[in-house]
Amino acid sequence: MGVDKLKLAVLISGRGSNLQALIDACKDPLFPAEIVLVLSNRPQAQGLDYARAAGLPVLTVDHKNYPDRESFDDAVHDEIVKNGADLVALAGFMRILTPGFVNKWPRRMINIHPSLLPDYKGLDTHSRALADGKKEAGCTVHYVVPEMDSGPIIVQKRVPILEGDTPEILAERVLEQEHIAYPEAVRIVTDELSG
Predict the structure, then answer these.
(1) Which listed residue, of 20, 21, 110, 114, carries a Cα 20 to 30 Å from 37's Cα?
(2) Marked catalytic residue, from 63, 77, 113, 126
(3) Residue 113 bears catalytic tag
């Protein structure tokens, strides 16, 4: 008897390492989700190559082809719905989504962020943590709400900040934890949605 899997749309803008972590997780027959769409707003996003290599449906919706955020978001929403997704995972998707879009996916859109939210919303998280003399950094998977990086937290992973860390070195160590956290969060959300 097959497992009834949650259908996942993954939105990317760049290299797609968190997408690859989700692709790898989905290879496990017991993983509760399957990727039905990988969508990028950038035609050259490296992550699209990972998706193609895995035989996944790939689509580019280039934000430069739309006059405003609303029309871009509408086009993205339509593609997600057309592909039958139940859950949207933002994996390095570097576009601020409009409240109208976000509100169509209540507790069905998640994001991964490279800090221990609520600390360091937005960009340059590792530089800011180092500048503040923090002893710990990490990543957060959270539900997406209209206010950036503010939704309810699903999973956090922590890493120590070590003497001599640069933003780049710290980013690599945090990224390793992101690749663990995102599949874990998808499991948690799947349980919640199917419960």
Answers:
(1) 114
(2) 113
(3) yes
